[in-house]
Amino acid sequence: MAQSIITYKTLYELDPSLKSEELFRFYNKFNNICNNEGDTDNGCIKDGIYDNVDATVKDFYKNTASNFKIINDSSSQYFHGMTSDSNKRCIYFKYWFYDEVITKKYNTTKVNNFFDWWTQTNQNVCANCECKLSKIRWDEIHNLKKMYDVILFYGKSDVMLSEKLEKLRDHKYCKYIKDSYITYNIFQSRCSGETNAYCKEINDYIKNNIDDVKLTDLQCNSEIKPIEINQEEQELINGVLSINPLKQTGQDEASSDKQGTLSHTVIGIFGTAFGLFLLLLILYKFTPFGLWISPRIRNYKRMWNKITRKDCESLLDKSVSQQIQSDNRRYNISYNVE
């Protein structure tokens, strides 16, 4: 079934260039933390903290606990040759965790069960770890995954951001990235001044890595619809074209028929007005003028939307299942499960 979330595996299959990102190396290391039994420094925690964990999710619990501990261990050689930046490692880990929850199709109950276990266990795994994995809801995991997709692949610090966004316009997942940015834009406004775990993650990890100016102007080529002229526009155009151009008359005719001159003047003004309308219509529909002015119009709309946001907040509280059903009608990219 198609879903509103695109998994990491699907993203790099659609765009193989994403495999060159540092995240790809970390993601593979996270997946294999407990697979290399002969590696004494792989960091896999194998003690009794999983005794009461359901067998169907035990591997996920084991990988999560082991990865959480090792990203906070600066002395470990498991990530040798990779970034030692603790903030980046924490972001990569959180992204891996959220993507795994989505890929494995864990429901609300399984998410809540994990965090109940984690609340009791995390101090035994890493008591003073700088990176935190706090309890959040299932729908918040989905939202954060989408926001991380934006900053990890189109983040503010990327020196190639403008070039990447230009290429993104032609990608199948362009609208997904654009909608993910809109999700961030909505919730970062609601999270202003909030300190709950969900808002804290947006404010601490997402907000500073977003380039609002460039992402606001992002326009996907898949959204550019074929040029269509409706019946009303066609009638107006036909009306303008049917007006005969004014013929230059002689001096005698002009002086003998003032009424006719006035009529021609009115018709001329009328024709000029419709001609200007036709010119603007053609510029907007058939030339880059429309593409140039559209982002400016969207900026004004965005300012207006922020003013009226409170009137629309009730729409954000509908169930996640309804959001997914709505998204299903907009996306044709399948949900991939490893």
Automatic annotation (TrEMBL):
<dbReference type="Pfam" id="PF05795">
    <property type="entry name" value="Plasmodium_Vir"/>
</dbReference>
<protein>
    <submittedName>
        <fullName>PIR Superfamily Protein</fullName>
    </submittedName>
</protein>
<keyword id="KW-0472">Membrane</keyword>
<keyword id="KW-1133">Transmembrane helix</keyword>
<dbReference type="InterPro" id="IPR008780">
    <property type="entry name" value="Plasmodium_Vir"/>
</dbReference>
<keyword id="KW-0812">Transmembrane</keyword>
<feature type="transmembrane region" description="Helical">
    <location>
        <begin position="266"/>
        <end position="293"/>
    </location>
</feature>
